[in-house]
Amino acid sequence: MKDAAREGAYTAREKCIALSHEIHDHPELAWEEHRACGWVGDALADAGYAVESGAAGLDTALVATRGSGDLVVGVCAEYDALPEIGHACGHNVIAGAAVAAAYALAPVADELGITVKVFGTPAEESGGGKVYLLERGAFAGTHAAMMVHPSPYEQVAHKALAIADMDFTFTGRTAHAAMAPELGVNAGDAVTVAQVAIGLMRQHIKPGERVHGIVTRGGEAPNIVPGEAALSYYVRSPTLEDLLVLRERVERCAEGAATATGCALEVSSPSRSYSHFRNDDDMVALYRRNAEAAGRAFPELTAEQRAKAGSTDMANVSLELPAIHPMLGIECGGSVNHTPEFAAWCARPDADRAVVEGGVAMAWTIADMAADAALRARLVAS
């Protein structure tokens, strides 16, 4: 069955790579991935999957199903891009690999006694598509889930920080900056005070925590006292519990800035919070063995590399059902995710190889999960 699965993936190799390149060449932001979602759905339909578009009421989400076994395993595809720099996190590779896994499993799903579900998940970079899918029941009845993600280095057990976004809008009063500055209440000053307070607070946060943000509105002209100014910040912690504490501390910095300058403050969070990641150890072990058999290698990571972590809404899935999120190391010229340089590497031959090998590794892992009686029983009972 593994030979048949590999043949299924390699037969569709050019289709999966072309899909990856098409998504890469037409980047779409969170909740706007209409073309990418459609292309993924069409490829899955060609593989014999029943495709539900607009899953869970989300225009750019889908769930594709094949097989009727009692073990239900999900493979997640992402396809949203980043503002200005496109597919600098390689979500085109993620989508291509998910479709490759789907093609690999199509001819063997019934023999394995599994139901395969491919989830097209929008808005991972900003918005939390998987969180909405969880909340609206799209993952109900799924016993385990997985995805792969391109990175500067290969890694099997994913580390992710819990994350929340925070938007701060300060409202003061405009005035002529030269003729009557005394009549103004400077919202730009509130932004400055908040950033200084947050910067000083960073000296006293826990190891592994992160606070970072940008000014999204600073004023209209140098000769106008800004009547409104705004910040957008992300806060990250190793656990959801720590995240709540850090988030409150950051909000207090903004409140202090508002008090100091006499501005009003509005706080909002446009996206759902993401949790820390819980790896399923059995699935991790199976994936590593199968990834190595598929051609991947896991060099020893440095302490610095092991300490690095981003955030993902797949982490929320991992708290609800057994899951893994391995990283696919690709040649990237020393660049890192979320840079224009990394975006360019995500449509080159090594990324194309990762599409197919990542898909095969996931498919073989699922085959082993189905064949392991003890693991299968645990997953079905979960």
Task: Summarize the entry for a quick read.
With 382 residues, the chain is of the alpha/beta class. The chain contains 14 helices and twelve strands.
Descriptive labels:
382 residues; 18% strand; 12 strands; alpha/beta; six-stranded mixed sheet
Q: Into which percentage range does the β-strand content fall? A: 15-25%
How would the global form be characterised? elongated
Radius of gyration: 23 Å
Supply the helix-strand structural class: alpha/beta
Q: What would the average pLDDT be, to the nearest integer? A: 97
Please provide the count of β strands: 12
Oligomer: single chain
Please estimate the helix content.
40-55%
Separate helix tally: 14
Give the topology string: H per helix, E per strand. Answer: HHHEEEHHEHEEEHEEHEHHHEEHHH
Low-confidence regions: none
What spatial order of strands do you see in the largest sheet? 1-2-4-3-5-11
Largest beta-sheet details: 6 strands, mixed
Distance between the termini: 26 Å
Record the SSE blueprint.
Blueprint: H1 2-11, H2 13-25, H3 34-46, E1 50-53, E2 62-67, E3 71-78, H4 91-105, H5 109-112, E4 114-121, H6 129-135, E5 144-146, E6 149-151, E7 162-171, H7 187-201, E8 210-217, E9 228-237, H8 240-261, E10 264-268, H9 281-294, H10 303-307, H11 314-320, E11 323-324, E12 327-329, H12 340-345, H13 349-371, H14 373-381
Parallel strand pairs: 3-4, 3-5, 5-11, 6-12
Antiparallel strand pairs: 1-2, 2-4, 7-9, 7-10, 8-9
Helix pairs in contact: 1-4, 1-13, 2-3, 2-4, 4-13, 7-8, 9-13
